[in-house]
Structures are given as structure tokens and as C-alpha cells.
Amino acid sequence: MVEGGFVYRFFRGPASADIASARSSGLLDRLVEQGAVLPYELVPIDERPARWLGLDTDAVVLRQPKLAFVSYPYEWPFGLLRRAALFHLDVLNTALAAGLILKDASAYNVQFEGTRPVFIDLGSFARHEPGAPWRGYAQFCAMFLNPLLLQATVGLPFQPWLRSSLEGIAPAELERLLPLWRKLRPAIFTNVVLQSQLQRRFGALAPRRQRRRTVPSDAGDGAVRFVRRRSVAI
Q1: Residue 127 parent element (H or E)
Q2: Domain spans of the chain?
């Protein structure tokens, strides 16, 4: 909720426990120091906006300054989407080091102050269960990696596609557009072709299979290296 130049975010139930873990672990303060998250403050019950005065007393309300300008991924040039992708993975790695993880990987979780990315969805942080996969991987590919690959490899601008498909570009859609020699590149085969084939073959079974895979503390490093080095000149 936006009121008086501030954005108020409230958390209750499991979400309040997750945001408490993000605060107690030092993760949020570390991200604020890095400029990755806007400064925040805990709002006492008597300072909550009037419409929220009836919230449960154990609900957590945070207040952050309002951004001067809001933009959307389908408005960004290639360089800003690439910067947002790397930034999102950096936030993921910082969270993992603190024992938390990002529940999703929406490009709409990132905004820009000038050309500096900031992470705005504090509700995306959750406690990381050892052995659990990063469930945001497929969304990261659809909303960041695949649009970058579309423009870098096929030469088609991603903006019109993201404007008409707010969930991004599915691996099967990108696979149909890629020439064979591109598909054989190891990184593209793994992140696009193989993912597309697994989704076609297993469908709803894929999440169950993924639960057996663990997520190490440096889980995002490979993706960071791939996007940083390959997204411009694959």
C-alpha cells in the first residue's frame, strides 16, 4: 500500500516468520547496505495506516520510501534486463548464504533507481530447507534468460514478447525459434532444450523429481557466470 510517500508492506502467518528470519539473520540489513534493497523500518502498531489498525498484533508491517519512477521489464533495453538478471542471482546467492532463499524469480521483483537495480519484493524471501530445490529456476529462465537468449541468438527484440506474455518466454517457445547449431551449445541445451523436453515428458511429475535434488549455498553461481559471459554473444 502506498501512503504519504511511503510503501507499506505487511506480513502475517508464515510470511511474518519468513520476514522475521530475513531480519534476524541480518540479510535485509546486508542488502540495504549493498544498495540492493531500499531502507526499511518496522512500523509500530500505533503508527500503522488506519485501514491496517485491525491487523493481528503478530503481523509485521514494514515501511519503505516510495520509488520516484516505476518501470516494467517489457520497457527495458537488453542491457537493463541483463543487469536485472545478474542482480536477481546475486540477491539469491546472498540469501542462500544467510540460510534463506527466494521463492520466485519474477522480473517484476526488480526496479531501477536510475540504472541501479533494487529488489522490491521482500515477501519473496523464505527460509531455506536443506535439500529443497530453487523453485524459481524455471521462472528465472522464462522471465530473464530466455528473453535475453531470444534477442542475443535470434536477433528478435524481447520487449513485444514480454508485453504480450507477462509470464515470460517458455523454453518450448524459445526452442522452436533456435537454429540447430545454437541448440547444441551446452548451456543452451541444458537451460532451454533439456528443460523443454522435461516439461513435455513429465509435466506435473517434474516438481516431484526435483525435490530429490539439493541446492548448495552457491547454487546461483553457474547461472551468474552463464548470463554474465554468454547472454550478449551466444
Answers
A1: strand 125-127
A2: 1-66, 72-234
